């Protein structure tokens, strides 16, 4: 077992340095962030200015404002001696080899003998930075290439040198995965490592199609975006976000650094990119790049005139029909076999990219899995190049490469001769150059749901939108599979059946979770809206009673039930989480009671539990102590606030203080299973009923309604928002109670039901529901 780092220093408070420091602080480390001394006045002036700017970044780089206090600022003149006490030093200064080497010399004289040193350089040879240092230093030195922004992009490339101790590499791999939440790949010490080498090639393919092949910016972004399993920002919007100057800098430095690369001409900077950078057209940071927003209209660049023009109709055939295929692999096959311009672009760029990726092995990495993971974790692709190759068909792609006259790497030819038909036999076994099928590193602290589902003996029960899976050791998983993981009628009915099974069968406990990016989008609005519009309010009343009773059963079950959550958990999904006695949450969990956005208030216990937690967190139950916390909870629900992290969700009150928060959310199911086993082993007792919840009555309601009036007068809420806030205040303060009182949880649940149901018949609520279903955005009518 490795020892985790507790203290670190980041040298260089630029954009990356401050964000790396923030991410280490998020992980619980004490971090020293040092930079050059200011030339005059306060020597911390530079680092303080950089840190102040970083605190205002959006999305936020810290989980909570309080975590920022873990970062201790300093300068190289006055505080370099602090480095004698840290476990890990990360260099993130200017990209100048001589200056970095000088810094390494200074570090070697100060740091502990067991401290690890790494560089975040993206363009310089790793081994050269530590050149000339003692063997003992070089053994503890490597590259740690974080991707921007470090909090939100999962990829961490570790780049050892020939001198790096393998034990140091393994410790960094372990710490990066478990404590920093990273997807770690081992890269070779080659220009741009893995992610940026392949990612830049893909970007330049798009640029060439624009400048040389007659495709428009909009057409290329359509064909390289979500349609093909890549981020919505696709090629040109991503370039605008990264910065055209950064794009050109990377390409200009990469081209001369790879003289042996047979694909290096792709990295030659197009003239149009040079012209744009020369005129200060740098992308989002200057307000215009490949795109420009003008008077509410999105314009794009004409490559010949360099004028911004409205988008022209796309000439991509029936691309909308392809986009309607819900399964990515179906869309990819349709694109690949399309006979029009869309298919021509996709085939040409795909064959080129896959061939280039294959030619870079084993130069930049040992395994196809490392390239695939780098592109998924660093660039947000759903499938890496070799996974894409498998999806399209190994033999078909190889035949098409040969037919196109593309030179095929020797190891690919050998692979075909050996009878291999896929790169992947499983997540754990991948075909590798000169090795054949070999195992690749896979975390033993994660549960592979795909493997579980592939084993029919593991599925204990299922319907069309949910299943009960055997996790082993007496623990079962309730996984909902509805669209958006909504709490549909099938999901709710299924959970009722599963709780019956939990009561009657020899299970130790239950995990509620799934393998999707998001835990749950809440109630199925389409079902509820249809019932409301048809006037089936009796059915809606029964549904609310069923859901409330279901969440109460979860809360007070005799066996442990643990929610394993990640991504968004909204509305009814949030209420489900709040009902669970124990929660395991990915740090990147965004949870909230957002019902007002569709003209409702929480109706399944969310209000009751928030009010109960307010009283629990107050110093005592006197109204003066409870009122400020109640007002904060009221504002959170009335403004549909969603937490920006699991840590903030604890602060708000959506998650209990006992929540186990994981930097690596992929571990959530395994940790939740371990939590069930632990609770069973120690002798599980469900939480006591809430028989005496403090509510503050009519005087507190007046205060909350005044807050709502202020929001409306300030333009932060519509008239209907104000109406909904009044209903929310009514429930949160105990309804018609005229003074503070202790009430049973069932009293507040009844108030929720009685207030929730009539709202469904309101025209403005139905308008909000319809608008949300059509646009996926809230309507403030």
Characterize the structure shown:
The chain has 781 residues and is an alpha/beta fold. Helices cover 45% and strands 15% of the residues. The chain has 32 helices and 23 strands. The chain has an 8-stranded mixed β-sheet with strand order 3-2-1-4-5-6-7-8. Helix 15 crosses helix 17 (385-392).
> How would the global form be characterised?
globular
Helicity level: 40-55%
Strand content is 5-15%
**Tally of contiguous helical segments:** 32
Terminal Cα span: 57 Å
What is the spatial order of strands in the main beta sheet?
Answer: 3-2-1-4-5-6-7-8
pLDDT average, as an integer? 95
How many strand segments?
23
- Report the uncertain regions: none
How is the main sheet built? 8 strands, mixed
Structural class: alpha/beta
Provide the gyration radius in Å. 28 Å
Short précis:
With 781 residues, the protein is of the alpha/beta class. Helix 22 packs antiparallel against helix 32 (763-775). The model has no long low-confidence stretch (mean pLDDT 95).
Index terms:
single chain, alpha/beta, 45% helix, 32 helices, seven-stranded mixed β-sheet, 23 strands, 15% strand, 781 residues, eight-stranded mixed β-sheet
């Amino acid at each position: 077992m490795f020892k985790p780092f507790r203290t670190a220093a980041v040298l260089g408070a630029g954009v990356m340095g401050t964000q790396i420091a923030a991410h280490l602080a998020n992980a619980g480390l004490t971090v020293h962030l040092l930079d050059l001394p200011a030339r005059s006045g306060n020597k911390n002036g530079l680092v303080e200015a950089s840190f102040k700017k970083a605190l205002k970044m959006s999305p936020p780089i810290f989980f909570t404002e309080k975590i920022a206090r873990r970062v201790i600022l300093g300068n190289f003149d006055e505080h370099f001696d602090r480095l004698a006490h840290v476990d890990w030093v990360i260099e993130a200064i200017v990209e100048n080899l001589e200056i970095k080497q000088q810094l390494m010399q200074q570090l070697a004289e100060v740091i502990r003998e067991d401290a690890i040193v790494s560089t975040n350089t993206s363009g310089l040879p790793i081994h050269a930075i530590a050149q000339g240092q003692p063997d003992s230093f070089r053994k503890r030195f490597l590259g740690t290439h974080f991707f921007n922004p470090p909090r939100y992009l999962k990829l961490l490339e570790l780049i050892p040198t020939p001198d790096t101790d393998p034990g140091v590499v393994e410790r960094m791999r372990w710490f990066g995965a478990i404590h920093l939440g990273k997807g770690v790949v081992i890269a070779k010490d080659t220009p741009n490592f893995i992610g940026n080498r392949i990612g830049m090639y893909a970007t330049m393919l798009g640029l060439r199609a624009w400048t040389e092949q007659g495709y428009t910016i909009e057409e290329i972004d359509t064909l390289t975006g979500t349609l093909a399993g890549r981020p919505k920002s696709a090629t040109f919007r991503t370039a605008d976000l990264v910065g055209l100057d950064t794009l050109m800098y990377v390409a200009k430095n990469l081209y001369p650094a790879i003289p042996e690369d047979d694909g290096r001409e792709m990295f030659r900077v197009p003239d149009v990119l040079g012209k744009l950078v020369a005129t200060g057209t740098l992308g989002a940071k200057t307000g215009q790049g490949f795109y420009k927003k003008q008077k509410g209209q999105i314009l794009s660049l004409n490559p010949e005139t360099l004028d911004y023009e409205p988008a022209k109709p796309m000439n991509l055939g029936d691309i909308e029909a392809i986009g309607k295929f819900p399964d990515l692999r179906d869309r990819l096959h349709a694109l690949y076999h399309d006979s029009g311009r869309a298919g021509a672009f996709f085939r040409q760029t795909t064959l080129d990219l896959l061939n280039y990726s294959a030619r870079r092995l084993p130069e930049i990495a040992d395994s196809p899995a490392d390239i695939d993971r780098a592109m998924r974790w660093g660039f947000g692709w759903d499938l890496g190049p070799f996974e894409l190759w498998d999806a399209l068909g190994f033999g078909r792609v190889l035949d098409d490469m040969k037919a196109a006259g593309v030179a095929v790497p020797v190891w690919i030819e050998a692979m075909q001769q050996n009878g291999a038909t896929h790169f992947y036999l499983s997540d754990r076994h991948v075909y590798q150059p000169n090795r054949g099928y070999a195992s690749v590193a896979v975390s033993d602290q994660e549960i592979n749901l795909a493997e579980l589902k592939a084993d029919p003996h593991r599925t204990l029960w299922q319907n069309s939108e949910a299943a009960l899976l055997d996790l082993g050791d007496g623990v079962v998983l309730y996984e909902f599979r509805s669209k958006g993981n909504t709490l549909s009628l099938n999901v709710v009915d299924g959970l009722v059946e599963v709780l019956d099974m939990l009561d009657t069968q020899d299970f130790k406990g239950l995990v509620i979770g799934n393998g999707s990016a998001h835990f749950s989008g809440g109630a199925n609005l389409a079902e509820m809206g249809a019932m409301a519009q048809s006037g089936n309010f009796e059915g809606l009343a029964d549904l609310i009673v069923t859901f409330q009773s279901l969440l109460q059963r979860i809360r007070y079950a005799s066996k442990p039930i643990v929610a394993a959550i990640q991504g968004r958990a909204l509305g009814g999904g949030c209420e489900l989480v709040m009902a669970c006695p124990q929660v395991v949450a990915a740090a990147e969990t965004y949870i909230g009671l957002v019902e007002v956005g569709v003209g409702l208030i929480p109706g399944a216990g969310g209000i009751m539990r928030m009010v109960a937690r307010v009283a629990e967190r107050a110093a005592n139950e006197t109204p003066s102590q409870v009122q400020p916390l109640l007002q904060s909870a009221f504002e959170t629900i009335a403004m549909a606030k969603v937490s920006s992290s699991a840590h903030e969700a604890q602060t708000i009150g959506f998650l209990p203080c006992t929540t186990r928060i994981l930097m690596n959310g992929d571990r959530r199911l395994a940790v939740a299973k371990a939590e069930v086993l632990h609770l069973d082993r120690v002798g599980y007792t469900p939480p006591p009923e809430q028989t005496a919840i403090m509510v503050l009555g009519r005087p507190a309601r007046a205060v909350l309604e005044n807050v709502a009036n202020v929001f409306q007068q300030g333009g932060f809420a519509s008239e209907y928002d104000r109406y909904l806030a009044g209903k929310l205040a009514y429930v949160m303060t105990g309804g018609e109670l005229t003074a503070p009182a202790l009430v049973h949880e069932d009293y507040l649940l009844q108030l929720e039901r009685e207030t929730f149901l009539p709202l469904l018949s309101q025209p403005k609520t139905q308008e909000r529901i319809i608008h949300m279903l059509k646009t996926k955005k809230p309507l403030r009518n």
